[in-house]
Input
Amino acid sequence: MFDEKNDRSLMERVLERKIALGGFVAAALFWLLDSFIDVYIFNEGSLPGQIFEPGLYEIYFRSVVGLVIIMYGLYAQSMQLQRRRLEAALEDARKYVLLRPAKSIASSNLIVIGGIALAICIWLLDVFVRTYFFGEGTLFEQIFSPRLSELYLRSLVAVLIIMFSFLVRKLVYRQEIMELALKEAYNELKTAKEHLERIVTSIDEGLMVIDRDYLITDINPVIERLSGLKKEEIIGKHCYEISHKSNKPCEGKDDICPAKDIFNTGASLMATHKHFDRNGKVSYVEVMGSPIKDEDGEVTHMIEVSRDVTERKAAAVSLKRAHDELRTLDELKTNIISNVSHELRTPITIAKGALELVSEIEDSKTRETLIKKALDAVTRQNMIVEDLVSASRLSDVMVTGDLVMEDVSIKGLMQLAVSELEGAASAKGIKLSLDLEENLPHIKADYKKLKHGMKNLLNNAVKFTDKGSVNVNVADKGDSIEICVKDTGIGMAKEHYDAIFKNLYQIDASSTRRYGGTGMGLAIAKNIVEAHGGKIWVESEIGKGSSFFVSLPKN
Output
């Protein structure tokens, strides 16, 4: 990552090494040049001897000059660094930038002036050493009347130091220019980075960067909110660990992995996933994945943008449920109209015909028979209407709030229900009996609805029994009351056990014509029982009869 401080430190170290290397090279060149002049101008020995076995004075002089050159270069560079660090501490950055070029020029000139001053100091030092250590004349003579070789050496050293100071100044000035360019580039990159971070942070959707190993390399704050985890808990983890609480990538057509497909194909992909937060709470997320490619076009990372669609998903489910309910109601309406139109007309036709004949027949016995027939038809009509009204309220019955709960004597309720069906059973020659266990408790129930459901069970048993009996048994089973309605009717196969409790279900077409009815009685009974928290089921054998069981909780 781009770092102004680190890059500037690197440049300073490079400059320091350049100046040090230049100092060593300048010192070595001075050693060689002095050896060459001593041999070929002043005839002082051979060149190998001057280079590798010089006299004590030559060693001293060359070493001092070389060391001074190197130290001066490092000292000049160090002073320059100190000046820049001091300027970097200024609070007014704009003022710093405006003043910097002028300060750079002044500082560079100071390096040259320092080189000239250093050359003068070396001249005086050589004069002092020759006079007091090597006894070569007086101090006055060494300063104002030096020998040709001494004048040459001192002048050469001065020129060399001054030239080296110019070199140092040039290097420092180049670094100044590079540093200004570096700072400008850093500021541009910093601005761009901050702008990008603001864009990513302001996105109201989760953003995650994933590498080819499915490791998360970056996220925005929305991911923290969706997952319930902090950024440091997410970075470096596998995406499927965080989003799916799984130890392997997503797979299968119902759980598409965008990362896998994007890394394989390089194309963007959208999918809907089920994500989990740290507490296991489920949320539905719409995921849009896009590839990040390098300069060679290879996919190195992917960006996953996720949108929480839990509410939209719930709304869609609710809408579908409502649609299904409406469709069911529409089908129910259609079936009611088609299936019960005949049942509604038949009793009316019978009653109408019987009553018309009554007015024409004088025989009292025949008249009585016709009136009874008309009355039975009206009773049948009334039961059909009750079934239709109950069917229209099936959904309401399933809601506990629609039940009027009270203490109900199950004994009294069943006795009344049986008594109301005795006439129908007697007319078919069927024995209808009721067996009640002693000391049956009261239960919490909606009296009217529960009685209606029990009458439907009894009516169903009487209707499908041509001969024999219908027995009702009520027993206390501890936490519940169990009611069994057993008949000796036509019975049914096991495949009809569940279907007979559905709306308008008839086992076969002939049964409707033979026995009549709307096919809603058992469905109504089932809904009423379940609304009370109970269960209803059947056991049957074809040709031997059926046993319907109802289990009702006491409370």
User: Anything to note?
Assistant: The chain is about 60% helix and 15% strand. The longest strand covers residues 282-293.
